[in-house]
Design brief:
38% of the residues lie in helices and 23% in strands. The protein is built from seven helices and twelve strands.
Length: 305
C-alpha cells in the first residue's frame, strides 16, 4: 500500500510540473501583451476632425428670432406697398389731363422765332408737363448759334416760361467770300441771310489790327455817347489797322473818320466835336476825311484831295 501510494503521488507531481512548465501563467501572458502594446507608438489619424459650434437654443432666443422675422416681414410689406403706390401715382400723373401743357411763354428772342424755339425744345400744348425734360430742352436751344443763354421754368400744372438771351451782333465780317454776323468779341455768330438781315457796319481787320480788336465793343459804346450827329447804323464799314487805328466811313456824307489807337477816347471826343461843328455849318460835303491823333485833328477837303 505504501509503494502504490508513493508511485501514484510521484506521477501526479510530475504531471503537474510538466503542465506548469509548458503553459505560462495567465498573469505573465497578460503583462507581456500590455508591454508590447505600450511599446508601439499610437497612430495619429490623418483626417482632420470637423468641430461644429455648439449652439445653445433657449426659449428667449426663439422669441427674439420670431420678433425680428416679424419686423422684417412688416418692413418688406410696407416698402412693397409704398413702391406700388408710387408707381400707380406716377402713371396717374403722367396720363392725367390735369397736368397737360396749357400755356407757353417765350421772352428775350428777336433773331430766333418763337415757333422755331418751341419746335427745337419740343414743347407743345396738350402734352403732359411732367414728361418734359427741362435740362435736355435747354441744351437743345443752346446749340442754336444765336442763343447764348436759356432758362426754362415749369409751373405746375401746365405752364412753361422760356427766357432767351441772344448774342448781339455789332458788325458783319467777311470770311471765305461770305458775310457773317460778329459780336463784340470778334466771334462769328451766324451767316447773314435775307431772313435775318440787319443793317450793321462791316468790320475789316487790316495789318496790325488784331491788337485793337478787343477794344471794339468799348469803342462802339463810347461812339454812341460821344455826340456825333449820326447814328452808328449809318456807318458802312469799320477798319482796324496799326497805322490808321479805328477807321469809319460815314456813307451818307461820304466822310472817312480816323481815330488813333493811343488815347483813343480823347481822340474820339475831339473828332466828334469837329464833325458836329462842320455839320452845323453845312460844310460836311466839303470834307472827305478827318483824322484825330496825338491830341490834334486834321481835315482833308474835297478840293485838296
Amino acid at each position: 500500500m505504501a509503494l502504490t501510494n508513493g508511485n501514484r503521488s510521484r506521477r501526479n507531481t510530475y504531471t503537474q510540473k510538466r503542465k506548469s512548465a509548458a503553459d505560462p501563467p495567465p498573469r505573465s501572458r497578460r503583462s507581456g501583451g500590455n508591454r508590447r502594446k505600450s511599446a508601439e507608438p499610437a497612430r495619429k489619424s490623418s483626417r482632420p476632425r470637423l468641430k461644429l459650434p455648439v449652439v445653445h437654443v433657449n426659449g428667449r432666443g426663439i422669441v427674439r428670432v420670431l420678433r425680428w422675422t416679424t419686423a422684417l416681414a412688416i418692413v418688406a410689406v410696407f416698402f412693397y406697398g409704398a413702391g406700388t403706390g408710387l408707381i400707380k401715382a406716377y402713371n396717374f400723373c403722367t396720363t392725367s389731363d390735369y397736368f397737360a401743357i396749357t400755356e407757353i411763354t417765350v421772352t428775350g428772342n428777336s433773331q430766333v422765332k418763337t415757333d422755331d424755339i418751341l419746335k427745337v425744345c419740343g414743347l407743345r400744348k396738350g402734352e403732359n408737363s411732367l414728361l418734359v425734360n427741362v435740362h435736355a430742352a435747354e441744351q437743345k436751344l443752346v446749340d442754336n448759334p444765336w442763343i447764348e443763354k436759356v432758362s426754362i421754368r415749369r409751373e405746375l400744372p401746365g405752364t412753361f416760361t422760356i427766357s432767351i438771351t441772344e448774342r448781339v451782333p455789332l458788325f458783319c465780317a467777311r470770311k471765305d467770300n461770305a458775310l457773317y454776323y460778329v459780336n463784340a468779341g470778334g466771334e462769328i455768330i451766324a451767316p447773314v441771310t435775307t431772313e435775318n438781315f440787319r443793317s450793321l457796319p462791316v468790320l475789316e481787320i487790316g495789318p496790325g489790327g488784331d491788337e485793337a480788336l478787343p477794344m471794339v465793343a468799348e469803342f462802339i459804346e463810347e461812339f454812341r455817347h460821344a455826340g456825333f450827329p449820326f447814328d452808328i447804323s449809318q456807318i458802312s464799314w469799320i477798319r482796324l489797322s496799326a497805322g490808321s487805328g479805328f477807321e469809319l466811313y460815314w456813307e451818307t456824307r461820304r466822310l472817312r473818320l480816323s481815330i488813333g489807337v493811343e488815347n483813343w477816347k480823347d481822340n474820339l471826343k475831339r473828332i466828334a466835336s469837329v464833325v458836329t461843328d462842320i455839320e452845323k455849318r453845312k460844310e460836311t460835303v466839303m470834307v472827305t476825311s478827318i483824322r484825330a491823333a496825338d491830341g490834334q485833328v486834321w481835315m482833308t477837303k474835297a478840293t485838296e484831295q
